[in-house]
Amino acid sequence: MTWLAVLGGGGHAREIAALAGLLNVPSRRWSEIDLIDEAAEPDALRGTGDLALGMGSPRSRQGLLSCLAQMESRWPTLVHPRAVVDASAVLGAGVTVQANCVVSTGVVVGAGTHLNYTATLGHDVVVGKACLVNPGANLSGGVWVGDGVLVGAGAVVLEGRRVGAGARVGAGAVVTHDVAPGATVVGVPARER
């Protein structure tokens, strides 16, 4: 048996630790699940345990993923039992999927991405690394999302749209056009702020 270190100390980290605890009940994969400050020195994380990202910031997630990339085998994918994930979906190392998410056919989700409660990813969606898709967000079919993107709670990205790396889609926004890398869009329809 090994331990699981959830990197982060806030509410998001506690939610990830709770998900890991739920998944740990039948398997007893981890003897301990601990919260570790994300500012911990990378060398301190090179022990024998598994790692999970518990930060609510794409930038923080990206930083840790790149710093600890050689340890990818230690990033378990955590999927809540009440999530619906199609068998054809590909979930990268360290992806977390919370309760009541729907991940449809042909979806690809990059390493270290978090799909929060009730998020929906339609057919053939591609989500990059270290993204946060917040509660109730809907990525319609054929959407492409770059690395380090934040999709706000209840946001909708319409079919076939592209959201560039590092972009932020505000809560409740409806994306009807492609979003440039690094841009922040808000409103209905979503416009750059």
Summarize the structure.
This protein has 193 residues and is of the alpha/beta class. 14% of the residues lie in helices and 29% in strands.
Task: Tell me what you see in this structure.
The chain is an alpha/beta fold. It has a domain at 2-74: Rossmann fold. The protein is 14% helix and 29% strand. The chain contains 2 helices and 22 strands. The chain has helices at residues 11-27, 58-67; strands at 2-7, 30-36, 50-53, 78-79, 84-85, 90-91, 96-97, 102-103, 108-109, 114-115, 120-121, 126-127, 132-133, 138-139, 144-145, 150-151, 156-157, 162-163, 168-169, 174-175, 184-186, 191-192. The strands form 4 sheets. An 8-stranded mixed β-sheet has the order 4-7-10-13-16-19-21-22, covered by helices on one side. The chain has a 6-stranded parallel β-sheet with strand order 5-8-11-14-17-20, with no helix packed on it. Strands 6-9-12-15-18 form a 5-stranded parallel β-sheet, with no helix packed on it.
SSE blueprint and pairings:
Blueprint: E1 2-7, H1 11-27, E2 30-36, E3 50-53, H2 58-67, E4 78-79, E5 84-85, E6 90-91, E7 96-97, E8 102-103, E9 108-109, E10 114-115, E11 120-121, E12 126-127, E13 132-133, E14 138-139, E15 144-145, E16 150-151, E17 156-157, E18 162-163, E19 168-169, E20 174-175, E21 184-186, E22 191-192
Parallel strand pairs: 1-2, 1-3, 4-7, 5-8, 6-9, 7-10, 8-11, 9-12, 10-13, 11-14, 12-15, 13-16, 14-17, 15-18, 16-19, 17-20, 19-21
Antiparallel strand pairs: 21-22
